[in-house]
Amino acid sequence: MELRTHTDLGEFWAVARPVYLAHPAAHTIALAALEPRLGTPHQDDVGVLITVHEQDAVVGAVFRTPPYPLGLSGLPISAVPAVAAKMRELEPDLPAVNGPTAVAEAFAEEWQTLSGQPWRVERGERLYRLGTLVPPVVRGAARVAGEQDVKLLSLWRKDFFANVLGVDLGLATSEAGLRQALEMGTTVLLWEIDGQPVSCAQATKAVAGMSRVSFVYTPPEQRGNGYASGVTAAMSRWAIDAGAECVVLFTVIDNPVSNAIYQRIGYQPVHDTANVLLRQGN
């Protein structure tokens, strides 16, 4: 087994793309985070890039786009020890990893052996793929968000990260992340009642026929009216109409409301993933 590190995203993507294209749904994070960066001002906003080779064939890949965790969806579990050791050299203060539960936990165990630092699962998530879309009957309508909506969406995004993902973003950081996503081709829909925004969702542009819906958020005072179902279904339809053959989303495993909502409108479970925090010692 041979590991190759890359400093250029274009070079890495040319080598690693077949790994991720093999299963677009399973590799949604890599596809949405990397290919849309090419040719944009964000192409160099990447961290560690590693490909795994056996007998001159590429068999795996990992990547990081700080501040996000090391992405492990393309890592065979047999390569975990070698990649963990390489990451100890390249980024000894690596804060977190994300990937299929078994791979993420195996990496965390190997990291603990190498570093002496315990780990914990911050959040378990379930990947869903859209089957047949079943739009709900919900009052209101969707529209594409524009520049005039950035301030509101930045505030909602900040609240979403805090309340759903447990991540404390400043408002300026939230806006910067939103603008970066828009520059990379993401579309945001707002669900409105009489011209008032009451919910939102976003979807990445299709890469290899795959688009991911995320940032489904309804302010507390507007919940319980089905707006999240409405905007998610509308966002899913938008993705299909924009050329996606595979539409996916993640839910937090221990949130029964969101898991039920998405299954009712046609999403089916694929597999579970884990966001694992490293360096959890004193």
TrEMBL record:
<feature type="domain" description="N-acetyltransferase">
    <location>
        <begin position="140"/>
        <end position="282"/>
    </location>
</feature>
<dbReference type="InterPro" id="IPR000182">
    <property type="entry name" value="GNAT_dom"/>
</dbReference>
<dbReference type="Pfam" id="PF00583">
    <property type="entry name" value="Acetyltransf_1"/>
</dbReference>
<dbReference type="InterPro" id="IPR016181">
    <property type="entry name" value="Acyl_CoA_acyltransferase"/>
</dbReference>
<protein>
    <submittedName>
        <fullName>FR47-like protein</fullName>
    </submittedName>
</protein>
<dbReference type="GO" id="GO:0016747">
    <property type="term" value="F:acyltransferase activity, transferring groups other than amino-acyl groups"/>
</dbReference>
